[in-house]
């Protein structure tokens, strides 16, 4: 009976010694989850920014193309009129 009591006392000591480690592991796990959620939010924001940037880029290219067409027409019409005279 004394041996069983000693075994339980030893087991109690081992559990008490590991308690701090278990608490640290739990806290680290909570931080990992928080960091993963923050990373997910930032990735969502980055995706939205990338989509908006692509849309703006397409708009700028379209405007530049229209500007080039207008300039070409503005230069070509007077030249063709002067050649027709």
From TrEMBL:
**Source organism's superkingdom?**
Eukaryota
Q: What is this protein called?
A: Uncharacterized protein
Originating species: Neophaeococcomyces mojaviensis
Which lineage?
Answer: Eukaryota, Fungi, Dikarya, Ascomycota, Pezizomycotina
């Amino acid at each position: 009976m004394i041996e069983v009591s000693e075994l339980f006392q030893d087991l109690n000591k081992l559990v008490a010694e590991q308690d701090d480690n278990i608490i640290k592991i739990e806290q680290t796990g909570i931080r990992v989850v928080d960091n993963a959620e923050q990373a997910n939010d930032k990735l969502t924001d980055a995706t939205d920014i990338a989509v908006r940037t692509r849309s703006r880029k397409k708009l700028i290219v379209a405007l530049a193309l229209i500007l080039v067409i207008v300039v070409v027409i503005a230069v070509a019409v007077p030249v063709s009129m002067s050649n027709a005279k």
